[in-house]
Amino acid sequence: MQELGIFVKTFFANISIMLLLMYLASLVYKYLIYKLTPGWKEALFVVLVILGGWASMQYGFRFSSGTLFDLRFMTIIIAPMFVRHQASIIVIGAGVALARLTFGLNEAAVVGSINMLVMSAACYFVVREAARRRFGFYKKMVTVIFSVNTINVIFIALFGVIPMEHYLWRIAPGSYILSVILSFMFVLILREFIMEANRKQELLLYNERLEEQHRLAEKRTAELQAAKIELERKNELVMLASRYKSEFLANMSHEVRTPLNSMLVLAQLLQDNSDGNLSEGEVRYASIIHSSGEDLLKLISDVLDMSKIEAGHMEVNREEFSVSELLQHFKYTFGPVALKKNINLTVKREFGVPEFLYTDVQRVRQILNNMLSNAVKFTAFGSIQLVVYKAVEVEEAGSGEVRPGDWLAFSVQDTGIGVPKDKHSLIFEAFQQLDGSTSRTYGGTGLGLSISKQFAELLGGVIGLESEKGRGSRFTLYLPWKEAAAV
């Protein structure tokens, strides 16, 4: 019993020493080596464990001047909990074996060193097999604890300097049970220690990431604020430039229109030749001047309309108007031109369309005027029809989007040159026509349809197009029926 009590004191002294070393190691890790690479960390751990084995032997129980009883084999048991490479277990066993020889070179020292090598080799193979079979942590450590403690007892009984009978009957039973229990306790303590250290490390890393994200967020916020200020400054410049452009175009259109109208009146007077004092050639020249002036006046009006739409200054003035009067206006306006080209022009209002409608008649007139002008321009023979009717769905030109509902439709259909399907979107862009040859043959700026489309959107409607090359065209202005028919 006295020997067992001494063994218990030795066990607890050894455990205390190892726990103290582990605590000191945690402080060193926390403040000095936590940023090292995994390889360096493992090398330092191996050195620390060998030092712990030496300290265990330093305070172990001495049977005689050369015989020691201690817990040096605990270094083998705890090694699998920390090392990344299984070969480090053999290195630790060899290191502790050499440390045993520093306490005196005798038979007990040699046996003790060989015992450490045998236990480390056994632990190495147990860990390899546990990894191959994918053991969990606790299953692996239970296997290691029983294997190392059993081999230690068997080796000391067979090769130790203590008589086998005395060791097996008086020392081994108590020391084996106590060693296993303390091994489990030490492993559990270290397990909790490791988990707590990992939690602290994860918390530290999490805080560092939060601080980094906070710094990035502050940096991005500052960048966004600077970008916002820059965008506001540029927006002010754009608005200022747009206002200057609108004012310039408005002033220029007024300044240009005044003398241009005078030129048109004078050219018309010369073209009429009321006094009959101009030659036929001079009258023709006056006619060219008058025609070119009207084209220039129309171009100025189109550019001004485009500028107002882009600047958002175009206003909608809805009013009640007569459909019959509108159709009669177009018949009187384009009838003579169509008759001159031998084209049959018809206008009609289908059943269901009320006599009076409510919308911006000036914009509607301008859209239909562009459509009829194009129809007369691009039709060499055949007919042109202007029809007002009620539609139940529309298909927007270019996009192909179908919109159901009730719509008021103004349709202009001709038998002219037509528009290829792949050009349906192109002709609604500013300054665009079918191709260069068309522009040279028929003239025009390519602004009419672009302005018409934007006017239609301004009124809440769309423009539809049905056309094929060589088979004529059908342009249709669709307006919401509920608003247009609400007189």
Largest sheet: 5 strands, mixed
Q: What would the CATH topology of the domain at 317-484 be?
A: Heat Shock Protein 90
The CATH superfamily of the domain at 317-484 is identified as: Histidine kinase-like ATPase, C-terminal domain
User: What is the count of helical runs?
Assistant: 13
Low-confidence stretches: 436-440
**Residue share in helices?**
55-70%
SSE class: alpha+beta
Reading the helices and strands in chain order gives: HHEEHHHHHHEHEEHEEHHEEH
Rounded to an integer in angstroms, the radius of gyration calculated over CA atoms is 51 Å
Major sheet: arrangement of strands: 4-6-7-9-8
| Coarse shape | rod-shaped
Word description of this protein:
There is one protein chain. Residues 436-440 have low confidence and may be disordered. 25% of the residues are buried. A five-stranded mixed sheet has the order 4-6-7-9-8. It has a two-stranded antiparallel ribbon with strand order 1-2. A two-stranded antiparallel ribbon has the order 3-5. It has helices spanning 2-33, 38-58, 74-78, 87-101, 107-132, 137-159, 164-272, 280-311, 323-340, 361-378, 436-442, 448-458, 481-484; strands spanning 61-62, 68-69, 319-322, 343-349, 356-359, 382-395, 402-414, 462-467, 473-480. The protein is of the alpha+beta class and 487 residues long. Strand 6 and strand 7 (402-414) form a beta hairpin. It is built from 13 helices and nine strands. 66% of the residues lie in helices and 12% in strands. Among the domains are: 2-162, no CATH class; 317-484, Histidine kinase-like ATPase, C-terminal domain (Heat Shock Protein 90), CATH 3.30.565.10.
